[in-house]
Design a protein that fits this description.
This protein has about 270 residues and is an alpha+beta fold. Among the domains are: about 5-100, no CATH class; about 105-190, no CATH class. The protein contains two helices and 21 strands. It has helices at about 60-65, 185-265, and strands spanning about 5, 10, 15, 25-30, 35-40, 45, 50-55, 65, 70-75, 80, 85-90, 95-100, 105-115, 120, 125-130, 130-135, 145, 150, 160, 165, 175-180. The strands form seven sheets. The chain has a four-stranded mixed sheet, with no helix packed on it. A four-stranded antiparallel sheet has the order 6-5-9-10, with no helix packed on it. It has a four-stranded antiparallel sheet with strand order 15-14-18-19, with no helix packed on it. The N and C termini lie far apart (about 115 Å). Residues about 1-20 have low confidence and may be disordered.
Length: about 270
Amino acid sequence: MKNKIINITVVGLGILIMSGCSNKYPVTFASKPVNGNLICEGKNMGSTPKTLYYELTEENKKSGDLHIRKCIIKWSNNQTTEYAQHFDINKFPDGVMTTANSPHRYSVTFNTYPQGATLICNNKNIGYTPQKLSYLFNNNSYSSNIESCSANWASGYSENYPTSISTNTSNTNINLLLQRPKTDGYNIDSNFELKVQNMKYQKRQSEAAEANARASRDAAYAAEKNAKANKKAANDAYYQNLNRNRQLQNQNYQLQNINNYMRYGY
């Protein structure tokens, strides 16, 4: 039977137990880091850590199990983590704390020996090994599940990668290596590895050439733009000097007229 949240009262880091609450079981929702947004049954309950009180039924007391409705924490990056929903009230008669850890991004490299096998994940062609994929996991448990992936060599030989990886360590870079046994078709796959390496080399060379060509075009465009700007600046300076000379000529002409008037009366 799922229980109803009936009261939420937290003072600082302590819990204020109200009178008549002997039948109320406290569950503290903590998080690492703190100040995540606690949401229970779609309702915003505030920031973690947060203590909610649940009414214990006779069924709960008899079974020793408290089953609460779904609560999640929403992190600042909009990722979410689910909290536990079952608690042993016999083992923890005075209340319990459940903690959620912020999800971490893991980089998983799918490699093979020989390399150049086609990586297929969930029926999708990812490319030739090695390939690096990114996953977001909660490190609340010792392991996390990933999608189903397989290495498929040119000879037709294939092998599946493990779908469970260790995620409770500080190492977020995980390498998965499948070694193809030296059975029939191994030479085909070994030779194909060299072909894939050559294709990748040619692709890098082509990309580098394109990058250089693009850089040359950008440099030529910038040079042309600078030349136009310099030409415009030179033209502007020429006309500014021309206007300044005309102004000086007019001023000299006016001064000459004044001098003539003062000297000759005209």
